[in-house]
Amino acid sequence: MEIKRVAGALGAEVCGVDLTRELSKESATEIRQLLNQHEVLFFRDQPVEAAPHRDLAGIFGPLQTHPAYGTVSGFPEVMILESTADNPSKIEVWHSDMTFRQHPPSVTVLRGVVIPETGGDTLFASMTAAFDSLSSGMKRYLEGLVAVHDFAHGFKESLAEPGGRERLEDALKKNPPVKHPVIQIHPETGKKVVFVNALFTTHIEGLPPLESAEVLRFLYQHAVLPEHTCRFVWRPDSVVLWDNRSTQHKPVNDFLPASRRLHRVVSEGDRPY
């Protein structure tokens, strides 16, 4: 494999591997090591169909489904993320995937299927770099704090649509608010990472509301400083793997009225600690 770093904080483009075929044990181990090192990996020209896409994510652990997205026929693990002029994406903010779960995803594998001619990039930010660049006093303050993450908060726009609450009623019942540490220890690297995000985190337990809101506002801004980020320009059959435990990402929805369609598979992670 040939590795080319794309930014100082995180991100590497990987060449010389065919993701459409079953990976050898050695290749799977190498990809896992590269992901721990770079946090997000970019692959080009990988026409990965649903079955190998599912199997690729499976090397990182059991797979999760999602209550709010459609899926590829016959593959409930392969979610369809589609944004069109008639049904634009409602997710505009930086986030980690599915932190409303007790066991949020460890790794996300995303493939570009329909890509607009211009626009539609994805931004990534290292929560390891975000923690490392905090002052020592702020690190001490944050460690030991616990935040609440809520499915309903992340999907409030969908719930507000006509019939939205009825459509997501089952998801609401199965996904009550959960608590995660504000600073998580990565289970494989042992590094500390910031683990709150603007999409799903509602508040920090035990703090007055104003203090909680101000601390979260600071962390959301600090986490995505340009020095912590990289940017990926999609092409059809691009594949991106990212560590959901140590990164955040943000779609750039600047391509309408063109359409964008991505397929996503996520592997289940440990309970954050």
Poorly predicted regions: none
Rg estimate, integer Å: 18 Å
What's the CATH class, please? Alpha Beta
Order of helices and strands: EEHEHEEEEEHHEHHHHEEEEHEEEE
Task: Report what the structure shows.
The mean pLDDT is 93. The protein has helices at 25-38, 50-58, 127-132, 136-142, 151-154, 156-160, 164-167, 169-174, 209-223, and strands at residues 2-5, 12-15, 40-43, 63-64, 71-72, 75-83, 105-114, 122-126, 146-149, 178-181, 183-185, 192-194, 201-204, 229-232, 239-243, 247-251, 260-268. Helix content is 26%, strand content 30%. The strands form four sheets. Strands 1, 2, 3, 4, 5, 6, 7, 15 and 17 form a nine-stranded mixed beta sheet that branches. It is α+β, with helices and mostly antiparallel strands and 273 residues long. The protein has one domain (2-268): 4-Layer Sandwich (Double-stranded beta-helix).
Give a short synopsis of this structure:
The chain is 26% helix and 30% strand. It has helices spanning 25-38, 50-58, 127-132, 136-142, 151-154, 156-160, 164-167, 169-174, 209-223; strands at 2-5, 12-15, 40-43, 63-64, 71-72, 75-83, 105-114, 122-126, 146-149, 178-181, 183-185, 192-194, 201-204, 229-232, 239-243, 247-251, 260-268. The chain has one domain (2-268): Double-stranded beta-helix, CATH 3.60.130.10.
Quick tags:
single chain, 273 residues, alpha+beta, three-stranded antiparallel beta sheet, 26% helix
Task: Summarize the helices and strands and which ones pair or pack.
Elements: E1 2-5, E2 12-15, H1 25-38, E3 40-43, H2 50-58, E4 63-64, E5 71-72, E6 75-83, E7 105-114, E8 122-126, H3 127-132, H4 136-142, E9 146-149, H5 151-154, H6 156-160, H7 164-167, H8 169-174, E10 178-181, E11 183-185, E12 192-194, E13 201-204, H9 209-223, E14 229-232, E15 239-243, E16 247-251, E17 260-268
Parallel strand pairs: 2-3
Antiparallel strand pairs: 1-2, 3-15, 4-17, 5-6, 6-17, 7-15, 7-17, 8-14, 8-16, 9-10, 9-13, 11-12
